[in-house]
Design goal:
CATH superfamily: LigB-like
CATH class: Alpha Beta
Largest sheet: 9 strands, mixed
Structural class: alpha/beta
Number of strands: 11
Number of helices: 11
CATH architecture: 3-Layer(aba) Sandwich
Number of domains: 1
Distance between the termini: 41 Å
CATH topology: Protocatechuate 4,5-dioxygenase, Chain B
Oligomer: single chain
Length: 328
């Protein structure tokens, strides 16, 4: 049977791609730790990477907004934010097994045989699997278009992943990655806003890219130009560190009960992406969490964190140890 051997939760920010230099020394430390995570996944011999992230109104809109989506065949990166247009190899057998396991355990994935993913997934690929040596199972969680799944429901999703991987009839080592967060405030309007200056964006959010009347490449370039004008964005370091401490202490109960309102107030609308991390927590309950990096980088408008999930070290019992203790 397959086994979960590793996990990585990692923040993403599109400004890393367009404005890497803004991150300064803090940003370089994040990039170095990202490279170390890539090398570590190679060392543990991961055969498959289950990659959990979200879409940013690039593929899913209010005309069709699935809560959980899994790709079971072809998967292509959109190439937004200067990232490669990856042709992502999908581990189809595991993807389909996860889909069916979910259906048997009250998690009804939307599924697609032609998935398209934006920088949420492809930045995870860029940092952890850039040569596409490891086949992927792509999963998307709605973290941008309320109503959002509860944190508890995302944890339950992770538990289904754990069950599916553990029952997959393949001698494979599986790693799970979650991309997103931590605190950041994205300049995206509420869908019910009546502000005149926000109506064009709301029209797109409701109807999708079909309403864009310029070439898509030009549209994406315009988005890059608008966002990169933001020189700094708010980050809530205290909330980020509280979140990471709860992970470190395995306080799943508290995290499962955080509300969308609480997250948005303290971590911003972009902080809702911690749902991707919570799904990873549900899947990787048997692994030990280690916060390997955190720094607030307002120049990338995001609190940037990385958590490594490793198998516990198995200590050999002393030869004279019994079930009740040590013989004198």
């Amino acid at each position: 049977m397959a086994e979960i051997v590793a996990g990585v939760a990692i923040s993403h920010s599109p400004l890393i791609m367009s404005s890497e230099e803004r991150g300064g020394e803090k940003g370089q430390r994040f990039l170095q730790k990202s490279r170390e995570m890539k090398e570590w996944l190679e060392e543990v011999g991961a055969d498959v990477l289950v990659l959990i992230s979200d879409d940013h109104f690039n593929e899913y809109f209010y005309n069709h907004m699935p809560t959980f989506t899994i790709g079971i065949d072809q998967c292509d990166g959109l190439g937004d934010w200067l990232l490669p247009k990856y042709k992502i190899p999908v581990e189809k057998d595991l993807a389909k097994h996860i889909l069916h396991t979910g259906l048997k355990n009250n998690v009804d994935f939307s599924f697609t045989m032609s998935m398209k993913v934006d920088h949420g997934h492809t930045q995870g690929i860029y940092f952890l699997n850039p040569d596409l040596d490891i086949p992927v199972v792509p999963i998307a969680i709605n973290t941008v278009a309320p109503p959002l799944p509860t944190m508890d429901r995302c944890f339950q999703l992770g538990e289904v992943l754990r069950k599916a991987i553990g029952s997959w009839d393949a001698d494979k080592k599986v790693a799970i990655a979650a991309s997103g967060g931590l605190s950041h405030w994205v300049p995206v309007p509420k869908v019910d806003s009546e502000k005149p200056e926000e109506q064009e964006m709301i029209h797109l959010m409701k109807n999708g890219l079909s309403v864009v009347d310029i070439p898509i490449e030009e549209f994406y370039q315009g988005r890059i130009e608008r966002v990169t004008k933001i020189q700094s964005g708010p980050v809530n370091e205290q909330w980020d560190r509280e979140f990471l401490e709860l992970i470190n202490n395995r306080d799943f109960e508290t995290l499962r009960n955080w509300s969308s309102e609480e997250i948005e107030e303290n971590g911003g609308n972009g902080g809702q992406e911690i749902r991707n991390w919570i799904a990873l927590l549900g899947a990787a309950q048997d692994l030990e969490a280690n916060v390997v990096y955190y720094e607030p980088i307002p120049e990338w408008v995001t609190g940037m964190g990385i958590v490594q999930f490793k198998q516990p070290v198995k200590l050999n019992k002393p030869k004279n140890e019994t079930a009740t203790g040590i013989n004198g």
